Amino acid sequence: MVRAPCCEKMGLKKGPWTPEEDQILINYIQLYGYGNWRALPKQAGLLRCGKSCRLRWTNYLRPDIKRGNFSREEEETIVELQEMLGNRWSAIAARLPGRTDNEIKNVWHSHLKKRLKQNQATSTMSDAFKYNPNQDTKKEQEHMNISIHGRSESTEYINPQESRSEISSVTSFDHNMSSNMMMKSSSSNESLVKITDENLGFEVVSADSPEMESDFWYNLFTRAGDIPELSEI
DNA sequence: AACCAGAGCAACCGCCCCAAA
DNA sequence: GTTTGGGGCGGTTGCTCTGGT
């Protein structure tokens, strides 16, 4: 069945909503609710199609919408649910109170998808660090263009003005779990942090001190030529 | 200051599902 | 069982803003 778009009727407005139109829609819905979207614009005195009104209400004007940046937890939830459910944005939105499917979809396409790609590249890279007793991999690892996108609660300590030590080597330390790696600092010659690949990135498991851990991440990103915003870490 | 490219986001489009006639 | 119409959903578009040159 082929049906003409509902906005095809002449005289119906398209494009961005004005504050006046928003107010009319809000006032109408507060008074009468929204039973029939198709009839609503006519009754409310709006030169819009019902579909446009419904979208404007559900994606923007609804009072329970939580606006602003997505928290780290929300982003992680989206990534996890997307893995589980696929691109079923409405189903994902149903599990994130105050967020709309459109908003989630936009966030996904604008940066979560990219981040996931980076993480996948990271996983591939971690494979390159698989322990091979027949090969002197240390030298190769030192010169490899490290591109890890990690996450750590402690990175807020980062201060770019401080002098920093160099990461001198990246070494597989667990032959059975090849994605685990140990980073060493040339200044302290001590192991800094143990990180594990957890699909969504690399998680700091332990560090001698928060400062050392911050130092580690900063150096890692500096080396990769990709210094992230602190909020992104 | 002007221009350009990329990111972010609101809104639209077209298809599908489902209930009512 | 078939048709019709409303609502919902995912994909896409295009405008605006921002940062870099």
Tally of distinct domains: 3
What level of helicity do the residues show? Answer: 40-55%
Low-pLDDT runs of 5+ residues are 1-6, 125-233
Task: Calculate Rg over CA atoms.
Answer: 25 Å
List the quaternary state of the chains: single chain
Strand content: 5-15%
Described by strand count, sense and barrel closure, the largest sheet is: 4 strands, antiparallel
Number of E strands: 4
Strand line-up across the major sheet: 1-2-3-4
Shape: elongated
Q: Strand-and-helix sequence, N→C?
A: HHHHHHHEEEEH
Structure notes:
The protein is built from 8 helices and 4 strands. Helix content is 43%, strand content 10%. 20% of the residues are buried. The longest helix has 28 residues, at 101-128. It has 3 domains: 12-61, Arc Repressor Mutant, subunit A, CATH 1.10.10; 72-119, Arc Repressor Mutant, subunit A (Orthogonal Bundle), CATH 1.10.10; 129-232, no CATH class. By secondary structure, it is an alpha+beta fold. It has a 4-stranded antiparallel β-sheet. It binds a DNA duplex (21 and 21 nucleotides) through residues 1, 3, 5-7, 14-17, 36-38, 50-52, 54-56, 58-60, 87-90, 101-103, 105-107, 109-111.
Question: How are the elements arranged and paired?
Answer:
Blueprint: H1 19-32, H2 40-44, H3 50-61, H4 72-85, H5 89-94, H6 101-128, H7 137-143, E1 167-172, E2 181-185, E3 191-197, E4 202-207, H8 210-224
Antiparallel strand pairs: 1-2, 2-3, 3-4
The protein binds a DNA duplex (21 and 21 nucleotides) through helix 3 and helix 6.
Please name the defining characteristics of this protein.
233 residues; alpha+beta; Arc Repressor Mutant, subunit A; 3 domains; 8 helices; disordered C terminus; DNA-binding
